[in-house]
Amino acid sequence: MTDLKDGAVLRPARAGDEEGILACIQALADYEREPDAVDNTVAMLTETLFGDDPRAFAFVVDGPEGGIRAIAIWFLTYSTWTGRHGIWLEDLYVHERYRANGYGVALLAALAAECLDRGYSRLEWTVLDWNEPAIGFYRALGAEAMDEWTTRRVTGDALTALAARGR
Question: Where is the N-acetyltransferase domain (predicted)?
């Protein structure tokens, strides 16, 4: 746990945080112009983050009144080149009214420390190319753009069709 300004605390997510985490996920989707894209539920988050075999993890910034102010949701990656794991940051979100309190920096610093403590070689994430405030924020922290790499995704009917080719 890390104490932050104004009485907030950065800590690993725990059971009971799911509604606050989901609210941050929805707020991020709204900001990223995809308000109808969130299918996640409190029950799904409970299973994913706190079930018998968690596959994703989260840090939260918890306000003194008990509300989730910010989240970082992450999971492990593996680099065949380095032979070590890394962390993929899936979502970083700070509620607008709490920005400029250092929560984003604190969450990224916690993830960087997690990498170092576990011997991981990378902390990676994507950012929308139109999100100039985030790009500038990440650049100021020393994050480099991977200009030579392009993310690819297969979903929906294309995912079903691809799977059928392998069956």
Answer: 8-165
Instruction: Please tell me the distance from the alpha carbon of residue 102 to that of residue 160, in angstroms, as a whole number.
Output: 42
Cβ–Cβ under 8 Å, residues 41 and 35: no
- Which of 93, 98, 103, 138 is labelled catalytic? 138
User: What is d(CA 74, CA 123) in angstroms, rounded to the nearest whole number?
Assistant: 10
* Per-residue model confidence as pLDDT tens digits over 119-130: 999 999 999 999
Residues whose CB is less than 8 angstroms from the CB of residue 33 and which lie 6 or more positions away in sequence, other chains included: none
- Ramachandran region, residue 76 (left: φ > 0; alpha: ψ -120 to 50; beta: rest): beta
| CATH number for the domain formed by residue range(s) 2-165 | 3.40.630.30
List, in order, residues 6 or more apart from 162 with CB less than 8 Å away: 154
Tens of pLDDT, residue by residue over 82-117, are 999 999 999 999 999 999 899 999 999 999 999 999
Q: Residues near 86 by Cβ (< 8 Å), separated by ≥ 6?
A: 76, 77, 78, 79, 115, 120, 121, 122, 123, 124
Is 103 catalytic? The answer is: no
Query: How do the domains of the chain map onto residue ranges?
Result: 2-165
Q: Which of 33, 119, 38, 35 is nearest to 73 (CA)?
A: 38
